[in-house]
Specification:
- The structure holds 2 protein chains of 2 kinds.
- By secondary structure, chain A is an alpha/beta fold.
- Chain A contains 31 helices and 22 strands.
- In chain A, about 55% of the residues are buried.
- Chain B is of the alpha/beta class.
- Chain B folds into 2 domains: about 1-45 and about 100-290, Aldolase class I (TIM Barrel), CATH 3.20.20; about 45-95, 2-Layer Sandwich (Alpha-Beta Plaits), CATH 3.30.70.
- Chain B is built from 10 helices and 11 strands.
- In chain B, the strands form 2 sheets. A 9-stranded mixed sheet of chain B has the order 5-1-2-6-7-8-9-10-11.
- The longest helix of chain B is centred in the C-terminal third of the chain and has 14 residues, at about 270-285.
- Classes of the chains: A alpha/beta, B alpha/beta.
- The interface of A and B includes residues 658, 684 and 745 of A.
Chain lengths: ~750, ~290
């Protein structure tokens, strides 16, 4: 999958004039204040990133990403999606331009020098340069999707939710006024003054760029473009230079424009910041719902064309100052999403007792139509979890948002992008191999003894825990180093302007941000729990084989030992409401969650938490993980999110949900739960879906990612029955596990109603 | 009290309102030719073999009854249900169907799912024929009823009236099967006459029980005007029938017949147009809603 879609190397001229200019400005201003340098760099990169409106655009502000720039995160396509933080350099793109046949030798040489400079100077490289020898050894690569290892670093500030409510209330002139007022404080230090001056420069730059669109749109109009299309955009461009958004369109326009230029990807509580102007426009007759939906569709298209991931929009929940208006605009936001039918934006619905039934009904319809959105959040449990793990007041916890796959963040108050990945199954693997990674064949992690030395199960578990603690401390250290490198190299001006309390403290994002939190992603949690269960049962209780024998069989991927694999598969598994398996999962999870939380103090973070999410990393990391004792074959997928391993839950939905509810989710910054339901359940038994969601939330499950099973999945179940142990087919009193049926019957079932 | 349970399946949504947990009792007095749960007919534990999962490893060839050959051959008629093969089969292809459980254990298993029942759902005792183990069914129903769980019984009705009497105080409603109106045809296709079934249905109605009439419709067997008229008349006669549910034949029981070493039942599934036509015909003849 490609990352930033808005750029294409063909748009880059051979001379790379913008990049040379950017580099020159960067070099010239180095040593003259970080904020000033950044503002000067943005004055080069942002104007060059903007593109003209395209036919059908109802909002201006298309942007591309240049190979050099400063952003919360730049997704490097050459590595299939590794993030770059702060001052980034896309070396691959620069080199492709350098190597063009049309390139002159002089230019080629000059680009080579520029590349050499940015190889050292990009902030990712600076983080790595600060690694000590141990971190260099253990975090040997950042290519988590292409290399074997327990831990991989990520570099990003992405997913923070800016204060778009403030942006909409104040507009660019209002922001300017706020900063000017702050700048009058006679007690400010010189660096504080520099920072505020740089913010003013940025606001000025943004206003100029809006003016540029005003000119461009005026020219289009003169060239005969349809005034019904152009004029409203033009009017908006004029108004936004003069004051705060006066209507829904202005608000949407300004939010898009700001987020596109900042490089933000998440839109937070959109219902709150759009609600009042939406209600005003509708009530005054200035706009219809259909016109609002058209504008939102244009917003979504820009989002899709600019960046290929995330883009989360949150609606619903407690703590909204304008819940009636917010619910009204929520309907338009979701209706536009229903019509858009793309993977983005990622809608999330915070479900709480006061939720407008119309909003829920619409969400229900979207899910029943096979969209996997909105993601449903248990508001009460989430507020409580955020309050406890992030150590904030109830009022602040109510302003939680989420990003990515559903990780919590405090809207415009905290930063908490996951900045490392830990493969827990690999941590167990290196523990069983005396501190070596058998896939790479080199030393990795702690040598805590050979398999022979673990004479009791408790000894093995202790060793595994120590291994995880070792890597967790490293992950926290990496998180801190990323923040430090950002702090030492940039002010992140556009983020600072809309994040608490940077303007108030007159300090850049780091350290000005109210809560500098941190998170990292763990994978294979359930794989480890199920594996430990199987080891306990087969090695230490039944003494069916010794641990060294088991390790050898795992190294050979069960070759010649299919019978043993079948026995391992039959050992207790998480997801079946089995006390032993669930307790093991609880132990594995509690350990890693608590170990992680303890790192916050050491690294000076407001909190440091695990997220257990369900992107595709469980598949990528599984590709470099040997067979595991739960019966999983080598190099196949690990467990996903906080779910049972696919195919291992076979006691029905209530049992699965009870198992999930038994894990200490409230100690994390987010856990993802998948629920696959059939379409017929939505169409024939809508009340059952309501009951199911209510019950899952009563059990304390924090979020539900519901997907509707279709014919394609049943066909897949025929090919890969092992993944579908929990798929029951029901017709009246008839009931069977789909995978227990013979292929002919399964084919027949494909034409029938299932749930 | 102990009884023989075939299975307990949570998240059942077609055997009554809301989210339910269905308790399948093993053993049934009828032998309906189209039965979709043939493994629940016999009142004893049975081995089922999923032949498609068999590894042909021969582990089960030690079968004391001689039902297993050395390379995946089976003679199910010689199976005594001792379960030796089940314990030895590495692939889990041999499975023991049915287990004896205490009523307390069954109730406690159902109660685990109680959070999901909410205001609509509950437990459905089905099978097999739950009232063939009336005292056991009563024990289970009583325990659930005492916990405030909504309890339904799905029954073929071919049991002594005393069986109904036993459970009536603890049951919120019945899913009552009505298969064929003509008594002789009923005997032919199910092995038993329908007079007892009809008498029980009438008495149940008089007792004021809540009844949903469940009518399996098998093409070539009971998709007749005469039977449909019979169903219609019942709804006229018996005011406690709340709905008529059509259960169109489906061939899924054949798969399980294969796992029991039985031949296929030989019926053909109706298409959607047939089912719609049945529904329309029945709706004209019945004075209560007809559902499919």
């Amino acid at each position: 999958m490609k990352g930033y879609l808005a750029w294409d190397d063909r748009h880059l001229d051979d001379a790379l004039e913008v990049e040379f200019h950017f580099t020159q400005v960067y070099q010239t201003y180095t040593g003259r204040g970080l904020a000033t340098r950044e503002a000067e760099c943005l004055r080069v990169s942002l104007p060059a990133a903007l593109r003209p409106v395209r036919e059908g655009d109802l909002l201006f502000g298309r942007r591309m990403f240049r190979p050099l720039g400063v952003a919360p995160s730049y997704w490097d396509d050459d590595t299939d999606g590794l993030d770059n933080v702060s001052f980034y350099a896309d070396i691959g793109r620069l080199e492709r331009v350098m190597n063009r046949p049309s390139q002159t030798p002089e230019n080629r040489h000059a680009i080579q020098e520029m590349v050499a400079f940015w190889r050292r100077e990009n902030v990712n490289a600076k983080v790595r340069a600060a690694y000590d020898e141990r971190m260099r050894r253990e975090m040997h690569s950042d290519l988590w999707n292409r290399e074997s290892g327990v831990i991989f670093g990520l570099y990003r500030l992405v997913f923070s939710q800016l204060d778009y409510d403030k942006l909409v209330r104040l507009g660019l002139p209002g922001l300017r006024k706020e900063v000017l007022t702050r700048a009058k404080d006679p007690d400010l230090t010189e660096s504080q003054r520099d920072f505020l001056s740089a913010l003013l420069e940025i606001i000025c730059l943004l206003t100029d760029l809006v003016a540029r669109y005003e000119k461009e749109l005026t020219a289009l109009l003169e060239l005969g473009a349809d005034p019904d299309w152009i004029q409203p955009m033009l009017d908006s461009a004029r108004r936004l230079q003069e004051g705060a958004p006066a209507c829904f369109r202005d608000a949407l326009q300004l939010v898009w424009f700001y987020s596109a230029l900042c490089g933000g990807r998440d839109f937070g509580r959109m219902d709150v910041y759009l609600g009042d102007l939406y209600a005003k426009d509708l009530d005054s007759g200035a706009m219809t719902e259909e016109e609002a939906i058209s504008l939102l569709l244009s917003f979504y298209r820009l989002m899709k064309d600019t960046d290929s991931r995330d883009g989360r929009i949150v609606v619903g929940g407690v703590g909204r100052r304008n819940s009636a208006n917010a619910d009204r605009v929520s309907l338009a936001i979701l209706k536009a999403g229903e019509r858009f039918r793309e993977l983005k934006p990622e809608f999330s619905l915070r479900i709480y007792p006061g939720l407008d039934p119309q909003v829920w009904n619409l969400a229900f319809r979207m899910l029943s139509e096979g969209m996997t959105y909105p993601l449903l959040f248990n508001d009460t449990a989430s507020v409580s979890a955020v309050r406890n793990t992030m150590h904030v007041s109830l009022e602040e916890a109510e302003q939680y948002g989420f990003f990515g796959c559903g990780e919590y963040v405090l809207g415009h108050r905290s930063m908490g992008t996951p900045n490392s990945i830990i493969n827990l199954a690999k941590a167990l693997e290196v523990t069983l191999h005396g501190g070596t990674d058998p896939v790479r064949g080199c030393s990795h992690g702690l040598d805590l003894g050979s398999p022979e030395s673990f004479t009791t199960f408790e000894q093995l578990v202790d060793a595994y825990k120590r291994q995880v603690e070792y890597f967790t401390a490293m992950a926290a250290r990496h998180q801190r180093m990323v923040y430090d490198a950002v702090k030492e190299n940039s002010a992140m001006l556009m983020m600072s302007l809309l994040m608490d309390d940077c303007v108030l403290k007159a300090q850049p994002l780091i350290p000005g941000l109210r809560y500098l939190a941190g998170t990292y992603e763990t994978y294979g949690n359930t794989t480890v729990a199920d594996s430990l269960c199987a080891i306990q049962e087969m090695v230490y209780r039944k003494k069916r084989l010794t641990l060294p024998e088991l390790v050898e069989i795992l190294d050979q991927d069960f070759e010649g030992h299919e019978d043993l694999r079948q026995e391992l598969l039959r050992c207790p598994k998480f997801g079946n409401d089995d006390h032993e398996a669930d307790e093991m999962a609880r132990m594995v999870n509690t350990h890693v969650f608590e170990t992680t939380a303890r790192q916050a103090v050491a690294q000076g973070l407001s909190s440091y938490l695990v997220v257990v999410i369900n992107n595709g990393a469980n598949v990528d990391l599984g590709r470099y993980t040997l067979a595991t004792a739960d019966g999983r074959h080598a190099f196949t997928y690990l467990s996903n999110g906080n779910n049972p391993t696919a195919g291992m839950d076979c006691c029905g939905l209530p049992a699965m949900l009870r198992s999930i509810a038994s894990t200490p989710m409230q100690l994390t910054a987010g856990t993802a739960q998948n629920l696959k339901l059939s379409r017929s359940l939505f169409t024939d038994h809508p009340d059952v879906v309501d009951d199911l969601v209510d019950t899952a939330f009563d059990l304390g499950i924090l979020s539900l990612n519901i997907s509707v099973m279709d014919r394609g999945e049943l066909e897949d179940a025929m090919v890969h029955p092992e993944k579908y142990q929990n798929l029951f087919v029901r017709v009246g009193g008839f009931s069977a596990r789909f995978v227990d049926l013979d292929p002919g019957t399964q084919a027949d079932m494909l034409t029938r109603a299932l749930y | 009290m102990r009884g023989l349970i075939a299975d307990i399946l949570p998240f059942s949504v077609s055997d009554g309102p809301g989210i339910r947990t269905s308790v399948f009792f093993k053993g049934c007095p009828l032998r309906c030719a189209w039965c979709h749960n043939p493994e629940d007919q016999l009142p004893g534990r049975q081995v089922m073999v999923r032949f498609s999962a068999c590894l042909r490893c021969g582990a089960c060839s030690v079968c004391p009854g001689g039902a297993r050959g050395s390379a995946g051959e089976y003679d199910m008629t010689r199976c005594t249900g001792c379960g030796t093969c089940v314990s030895l089969c590495p692939a889990g292809a041999c499975r023991m169907h049915g287990q004896y459980m205490d009523a307390e254990e069954v109730a406690s298993r159902v109660l685990r799912d109680r959070p999901f029942f909410r205001s609509r759902g509950g437990a459905t005792l089905t099978g097999g024929e739950p009232l063939s183990q009336a005292a056991f069914a009563r024990d289970v129903a009583q325990r659930l009823h005492a916990e405030g769980v909504h309890v339904l019984v799905e029954t073929c009705g071919f049991v002594p009236w005393e069986a109904f009497q036993a459970v009536l105080p603890f049951v919120d409603g019945f899913l009552y099967d009505w298969k064929i109106t003509d008594p002789q045809a009923h005997r032919h296709w199910t092995g038993q006459d329908n007079r007892l079934i009809l008498n029980n249905l009438r008495r149940l109605d008089r007792e004021g029980a809540d009844i949903v009439l469940r009518c399996p419709v098998i093409p070539g067997v009971n998709d007749t005007q005469a039977h449909f008229r019979g169903i219609g008349q019942l709804t006229e006669e018996l005011p406690r029938i709340r709905h008529v549910d059509i259960l169109p034949y489906h061939p899924l029981g054949n798969d399980k017949r294969g796992q029991l070493g039985l031949e296929k039942d030989g019926f053909h599934a109706p298409d959607a147009a047939d089912v719609l036509s049945w529904k329309e015909q029945l709706q004209r003849l019945c004075c209560v809603p007809v559902r499919t």
